[in-house]
Write a structure and sequence with these properties.
Chains A, B: This is IclR family transcriptional regulator. Two copies of one chain form a homodimer. Chain A is α+β, with helices and mostly antiparallel strands. Chain A is built from nine helices and eight strands. The structure holds a DNA duplex.
Chain lengths: 254, 254
DNA sequence: AACTTTGGTTCAAAATTGTGAAACGAAGGC
DNA sequence: GCCTTCGTTTCACAATTTTGAACCAAAGTT
């Protein structure tokens, strides 16, 4: 399952390289993109004007930006899953009661994407937002998903994306991760103790279909100061389990 | 300002035609897409496998779907504007107090896209969601924006997109629209009395930068039965004005 | 169990297009 | 008024995309 296109369309690749450059540069002109990607200006100009014509890019003055039209595609991808609609009300409830940050993550191509997040009154401000992609091995959410994926799939993912260290506490060893995932499977809950963001703790539970396939994972996260051992290991997990049960039931009958 | 690319990249156009086909067909195989677009199967296959390799499309079994990765691009486009972050808390407040549906729309390429919406407890269920694109002339939100765009820009937009009728009450005449927009400018509020969705009424106010450029529009909508004349024309407008004032102030100082 | 259908994948030749250097033009800074 | 920067245009050629036919694999039918 190494998805290598036999006859790849080079222009399609270039198109997305240019769009990604626009994201990275947070809007840019023809020359800036050309320099960034080491392509001829005239060529980049052709791509950008085509993208603008197609309404996927906007030109303000002389700089180009990624268009909100992508929200249409992104929202379609998100709404395609029942998960989003069904999980949202449960998540809102938890955020309201606990005051912390509640997250929903799904996996695609071996990486995680936040598809919904809701902040309670006391919630921390963190870097991630809807649409952010993360490595699976360094978040509680990701580990909850990995733990319920077939083992060969997990190997594939590690081979493809590696186990880069994000903080000092990130798991970077293949065997250590394997053991951790076994614990997660047994306990039904995954933890993240400052493995992705310093000072941030997090517990997550997987959400599975009635056939046993993981659809995503749900988490609650907050500052280490407030999320002490008992709350992290008892209170929050039971909340998560209750919520994921409801979600799983509702997904089965929808 | 007719954005016609001089040397368009045909492959870029094809790439997006295929992605749009995937949306329309709600996931499809190679043959289905090829038939839909009248392209050779082998060609479509090349595009889809390239898109999958780039992680913008997912293959489940033998059908392809638009990938959640587009949410990354879409969210970037949304977060680029301060508007989204600043309007959200105000909108949440209104939804909570009024119990109706609150919407935020922005314009790009002459069309509107919902970038946030929040439903109060009694809110109606409507077709639109975040990411949905609509014609500007048939919603209160769109008219609020059109009214504050330079006149030549409005002409351009009408020429480009026309004034298609969506319900019996949609404005389809150029001059009638012009008059309506003058009223909106004077009153500061735009209305929609079942012009886009039967049984749905709506009032909207524009949100402008301190330089006078429209950034978007805010609306409250509900069923005709509940949104009677006085509420539509007095109560809701004053709520909207209060909220847009706060938003405009916060945008200026951020 | 053989046959048919359906749909995905591969291949190589033919047709078109993307590429890239250079020149041009417009805008802004010095 | 000159110089710099950056976007836009042009054009010839190399390179890519496009095609249809052939090939497979899986599912459905007789």
């Amino acid at each position: 399952m190494s998805p290598t296109a036999r006859n790849p369309i080079k222009s399609t690749r270039t198109t997305f390289r240019i769009l990604e450059a626009l994201v990275e540069l947070d809007g840019a002109g023809v020359t800036a993109v050309a320099d960034h990607l080491d392509l001829p200006k005239s060529n980049v100009h052709n791509y950008l004007s085509t993208l603008e014509e197609a309404e996927y890019v906007v030109k303000r003055g002389t700089t180009f930006h990624v268009g909100i039209r992508f929200l249409e595609l992104g929202a379609h991808a998100r709404n395609r899953r029942d998960l989003y609609d069904i999980a949202r009300p449960e998540m809102d409830k938890i955020a309201d009661e606990e005051g912390e940050l509640v997250n929903l993550l799904v996996e695609e191509h071996g990486r995680g994407t936040y598809i919904y997040r809701v902040a309670g009154d006391d919630a921390v401000q963190v870097d991630a937002h809807v649409g952010t992609r993360v490595h699976l091995h360094c978040t509680a959410l990701g580990k909850a998903i990995l733990a319920h994926l077939p083992e060969e799939r997990v190997d594939e993912i590690i081979t493809r994306h590696g186990l880069p260290a994000v903080t000092d506490d990130t798991i970077t060893d293949r065997d250590e991760l394997r053991e951790t995932l076994a614990d997660v499977r047994e306990r039904g809950i995954a933890f993240d103790r400052e493995e992705r963001v310093e000072g941030l703790r997090c517990a997550a539970a997987p959400i599975c279909s009635n056939t046993g396939r993981v659809l995503g994972a749900l988490s609650i996260s907050g500052p280490t100061t407030r999320i002490q051992d008992e709350r992290l290991e008892e209170e929050i997990p039971s909340l998560l389990e209750r919520a994921t049960n409801v979600i799983e039931l509702n997904i089965t009958y929808s």
